[in-house]
Design a protein that fits this description.
The complex is a heterodimer of chains A (436) and B (396). Chain A is built from 23 helices and four strands. Chain A has 436 residues and is mainly α. In chain A, helix 17 runs antiparallel to helix 18. The two termini of chain A are 18 Å apart. The longest helix of chain B is centred in the last third of the chain and has 23 residues. The radius of gyration of chain B is 22 Å and the shape is globular. In chain B, helix 8 packs antiparallel against helix 14. Classes of the chains: A mainly alpha (436), B alpha/beta (396).
């Protein structure tokens, strides 16, 4: 049996579902997802429509103006959890899992975090409007949408950075906050390999001043406040930018097209889809596609599918907790109603989704996720999950989830188990199921 | 007290899972001395603690001009600093730690820095944990374990990571245990054994699973269920209990985040410093008599800018403060070769200039506290021959 269908569903997708078994035309199935129409709206529990950025900002303001009674969760935290559940429900049921993998990848590359209370209410909208529509667009489009979104401006303190020589800065004595500027250069685009200096970080921070978040009056959201913008020309890595809002887009466009950025993105994509330590030739090929297409993320996604290295068994990547839980629920035919269980499980395994500890996002290599207690917690959670699907036929689940990728040892253990539930625990706890 | 065994059953033992936990006689067979009684705890403060706020040099005349509203009132005033000898003052939320200074059991180290001058959290944390100026595949505390006298002798791992993540400082070739809270329903012993059988030849999952089962057999008997909750205070309390056990680990690492105070620093620091203070106190209390043989190193990846930024916060800097506490510490003082904050004294005209490499402190702990040989200390910190262990930090 040809393993390509399973590899498409595991390495590029979120794992097969009973009604969406491994595809017969693996490459065609993946490429079609890149052309798919916009993802359907999925409102969070208790919402009739998807929340807007205005809703999210209004909720955050309300939490400050009329705090909830002690012991109750703040409204912004409730919205964050509701958005997470809608997102997880989508992952469990989606017919376009490759697109969802790209959404998750770029969300993590341009990470914001719900651990920050002021950001939490905005993360759902960030993924929905800044990331999701742009995963096959030019990288510059994605980058600008992400950097200008209120979630990013709040998370990395840009909304309170003020040009010290601007009108507002002179009046109030307030000044720069270089957090976002540094992380854009270090994490989102160039990386330190490009050799920028502290002066470049400071200049770029001055260039970004004026970006702010209007919370109190409609239209709520990002706006440019000329009165907070640092006057004068800024020089970033030897390139001069005039004062004004237009330089923000110009600088982001320029950073997005820099060869060091292409190399960084290529390496991260290869590490995510191919191997923790990807072959240099793979990185070169992906970087070349980004260079030749002006950073087209659709083109580089197609190039990923075309990589011979991505189709070679055995499975090389260790599943992060969220990937593991979603794949298990999909393999057992779980539905979106299990999103709360999925959320609790991923959190217990050390990955509260959309909540990385720092702006560099969740780690993407096995060493970060594989450790003794974590491995046991995995088995405990998978065993609990198996208990919820105790009547789901384990032999069918094995063929669906792993098929020809299951080792003889795993097949034998599943088929010989004393009970169906134990068989499911063994399937989900097998070394193969920990990988994609 | 009877030693709890991992819940493996006969098959697990046949697979060799229980080898370390099974026979006291294996100690003799190895011909090694027992583990010493000294305990070392490393607390990593992730996100860059503002050393100038935690241990404020209120005697430095340049401070008010740099810090503005972030400067705390001098000792004796309302919400003022807790004095550390007339020049430095401890943040008022570190009151329990201040009591340890009074008892001669705590040192503040100031103007310290890790091996790099990077202002990237991610680079600086990695290098602080690796203990070198270049990337290595393991952390210094893991490499140090190889030279810890008797580290293979006990029934349980000599070092434990406390928390849901294994920090880089403890990653490497030496096996370490882990403790993390869990509330999930667990498989029975027989099913664990079959899962182990299924995974034991796998290079990634096999060793992790074997190590996890081994650690769980030990921790289940030591940490009672009510403490199995998250948060630094709970983790620190659990660390104290595990380290207090006679057959428990002698080395532990745990971490606390929330220090990246770019905005509204005064308020945010009050919360995290209280958590740190309570956690260190819980660690001390749970260690019981073993506190006398304990040294705790609390450190962060770098400091923050000497000047406040435009948001009553501070940005990424260089020199910071660290703490060394425990009954084994010759404390009650601030150890600093103070570079000053005045004109021309700041590193790159922005940060507290570092004058002490934290590796000098770590080397002293390995040599003077854990009794590692000079060769073992050098192996833990390769390529740093020019940085000598800082003497006089421990009672010895």
């Amino acid at each position: 049996m040809n393993p390509a269908g399973h590899i498409a569903a595991l390495r590029f997708g979120l794992g097969p579902r009973p009604e969406a078994p491994p595809p017969e035309d693996p490459r065609g199935w993946l490429l079609a997802q890149l052309e798919a129409p916009p993802d359907p709206a999925i409102p969070p529990p208790d919402w009739e429509t998807e929340p807007t950025v205005s809703d999210a900002l209004a909720i955050s303001v309300l939490d400050q103006r009329s705090p909830v009674p002690p012991g109750e969760r703040q409204r912004r935290g409730l919205l964050f959890t509701a958005e997470l559940r809608a997102y997880l429900g989508r992952l469990i049921a989606t017919p376009t899992p490759f697109r969802e993998r790209l959404v998750a990848f770029w969300t993590n590359h341009l990470a914001v975090s719900g651990r920050d209370g002021s950001t939490a209410a905005l993360v759902g909208d960030y993924v929905r409007r800044a990331i999701r529509p742009h995963v096959t667009a030019p990288f510059a489009t994605l980058l600008k949408a992400a950097i200008r979104h209120p979630a990013m401006l709040v998370y990395l303190n840009q909304d309170s950075s003020v040009g010290p020589d601007s009108a507002f800065g002179r009046r109030t004595g307030r000044g720069l906050n270089e957090n976002l500027a540094r992380e854009v250069l270090e994490l989102h685009t160039l990386t330190p390999a490009a050799g920028y200096s502290q002066a470049d970080v400071t200049a770029f921070a001055a260039l970004l001043t004026g970006l702010a978040v209007e919370r109190n009056a409609e239209p709520r959201g990002t706006e440019f406040r000329a009165g907070s913008h640092q006057p004068g020309e800024k020089t970033v890595l030897g390139r001069a930018f005039p004062p004004g809002e237009a330089s923000i887009d110009a600088a982001l466009d320029w950073l997005a097209s820099h060869p060091a950025t292409h190399r960084h993105l290529a390496r991260k994509l290869a590490r995510h889809f191919v191997a923790d330590d990807p072959p240099p030739a793979v990185v070169d090929r992906l970087a070349g596609v980004l260079r030749d297409t002006g950073g087209d993320l659709g083109a580089v996604s197609r190039a990923l599918v075309a990589l011979p290295e991505a189709w070679a068994p055995p499975l090389s990547k260790f599943r992060a907790p969220n990937e593991l839980v979603v794949a298990a629920l999909r393999a057992l035919g779980g539905d979106a109603g299990l999103s709360e269980f999925a959320l609790g499980s991923a959190t217990a395994l050390g990955q509260l989704i959309w909540s990385p500890a720092a702006p560099n996002g969740w780690p993407d290599e096995a060493a970060a996720w594989i450790h003794p207690e974590g491995m046991l917690l995995r088995l405990d959670r998978l065993h609990a999950l198996a208990g919820r699907f105790a009547r789901r036929d384990a032999r069918e689940a094995l063929d669906l989830a792993l098929g020809p990728l299951a080792s003889d040892r795993t097949r034998e253990a599943v088929l010989r188990a004393g009970s169906n539930r134990e068989a499911l625990t063994l399937l989900l706890g097998s070394p193969e199921f920990q990988r994609r | 007290m009877t030693r709890p065994l991992p819940a493996l059953g006969r098959r697990g033992l046949l697979l060799g899972l229980g080898a370390g936990a099974s026979l006291g006689g294996s100690r003799l067979a190895l011909g090694q001395g027992p583990l010493g009684e000294q305990r070392l705890v490393v607390v990593l403060l992730r996100g860059a603690l503002d050393g100038l706020a935690a241990v404020q040099p209120y005697g430095d005349p340049a401070l008010p001009g740099l810090r503005g509203r972030l400067a705390l009132p001098e000792p004796g005033q309302e919400e003022g600093l807790l004095d550390l000898g007339g020049f430095f003052g401890l943040h008022p939320r570190l009151a329990k730690l201040h009591a340890l200074f009074a008892a001669g059991e705590a040192i503040a180290l100031h103007a310290v820095c890790g091996p790099t001058r990077s202002r990237s959290h991610f680079v600086a944390q990695d290098m602080l944990e690796i203990g070198a100026e270049e990337r290595l595949g393991s952390g210094w505390l893991n490499r140090a374990l190889a030279g810890l006298p008797g580290h293979e002798a006990g029934p349980n791992r000599a070092a434990f990571a406390i928390g849901t993540d294994l920090p880089l400082i403890l990653r490497g070739g030496e096996p370490v245990g882990m403790y993390a809270p869990s509330r999930a329903e667990r498989p029975g012993a027989e099913l664990y054994a079959r899962l182990m059988e299924l995974n034991h030849t796998d290079p990634l999952t096999g060793p992790a699973l074997a190590e996890g089962l081994r650690a769980r057999g030990f921790t289940a008997g030591v940490v009672p269920p009510p403490e199995q909750r998250g948060g630094f205070v709970e983790l620190a309390a659990a660390a104290g209990r595990l380290l207090a056990a006679p057959d428990g680990p002698r080395v532990a690492a745990l971490e606390m985040s929330g220090w990246d105070t770019h905005a509204g620093q005064a308020n945010r620091l009050r919360g995290v410093l209280t958590g740190l203070d309570d956690g260190l106190d819980a660690l001390r209390e749970r260690l019981g008599p073993a506190w006398r043989q304990t040294a705790v190193l609390v450190m962060t990846e770098f400091g923050r800018t000497a000047r406040a930024n435009g948001n009553d916060g501070t940005d990424h800097g260089t020199g910071s403060a660290a703490f060394l506490l425990g009954g084994a510490v010759a404390g009650g003082r601030v150890v600093a070769d103070w570079p000053g904050l005045g004109e021309g004294r700041l590193y790159e005209n922005r940060d507290l200039a570092p004058t002490l490499d934290l590796r000098a402190v770590a080397k002293a702990l390995l040599r003077d506290h854990l009794g590692l040989s000079p060769a073992a200390v050098a192996a833990a910190f390769p390529g740093s021959g020019a940085i000598g262990a800082k003497g006089g930090l421990l009672r010895g």
